[in-house]
Design goal:
The protein is built from 14 helices and 13 strands. It has helices at about 15-20, 35-45, 60-70, 85, 90-95, 115-120, 150-160, 175-180, 185-190, 215-225, 235-250, 255-270, 295-305, 325-340; strands spanning about 5, 50-55, 75-80, 100-105, 130-135, 165-170, 195-200, 210-215, 275, 285-290, 305, 310, 315-320. A hairpin with a 2-residue loop joins strand 12 and strand 13. The longest helix has 16 residues, at about 255-270. About 45% of the residues are buried.
Length: about 350
Amino acid sequence: MEINLISDTVTKPSHDMLQYMFNAKVGDDVFKQDPTVNEFEAIVADLFGKEAALFFPTGTMTNQTAIKLHTNPGDQIICDKWSHIHLYEAGGASANSGVNFNLLDGNRGMITAEQVRAGINDPEFYHAPLSKLVSVENTTNKGGGACYDMEELKKIKQVCIENNLKYHLDGARLWNALVAKKEHPKQYGELFDTISVCFSKGLGAPIGSVLVGDAETIKRAIRIRKIFGGNMRQSGYLAAAGIFALKNNISRLAEDHRRAKELGTILQQLPWIEKVEPVETNILIFNLKPHLDEKATIEKLKQKGIHISSMGQGKLRIVTHLDYKEVMHDYVKEALVKFQ
């Protein structure tokens, strides 16, 4: 039995999702003539209470577009030091938009309104870059699937309003936060200028992210997507997977969360584990005892058919997902208890 817990991006479309994709009506989306893409964008925009949405092939491109929409070269983004837009997007913010970062030392990838306020440069001090954009990530990837408190997000919004800053949400795993915290997408739509949401992680689609915002912003985003090479033609087949995912795969995220929490409980009791980060959603991060080698540990688990990933500095990561079934879960629980 091969069990891939490296990421929730490893899922494959189910038979039903593939059938839904196969039956999609398509056109040329570059001319905005693909009916399924148009439907998908309208559904996602409405879900968040926003005027418009735009379908992208990747979450990185979605985030990079948002950065370019809200900044000019030389401006500064305020975000957590563990943010995906800083660590895992190949320096795109610098290459694509010519901006730099004020990296805040948050808690498990989450920053506070007071940290944001303290991190804003005085716009009259022309030696420093202009603070233009605050970006937060929910759930946090490197923070172990942690979820922001809604009240703190509202406080950050107020700081943005007072200082004329734009507010972006990297919501690659926002669906997980919505289920874990029993929230509604419109709560986020009311706060953020732009939101990026992914469909190829917890929701199990093969590809795709969507950017939502007001109509004028999304109109500008179409040009930036073109510049980045993100225009697609008969992409309704892919948009259909997103529609299917919205209809069928959101509530079941609770199962991923349950399994991750159960694995976390087991790991806390094992002698070879130094620390287990709190588990809120589907990401489980833990530290080995200092004398253990992470590469050797990963290899030993691989020999048992269990694939996990390293985050460096002795941190290992497990991510539960749509294709991680209960029979696999039972096997992993038993294997971890017996692991030497």
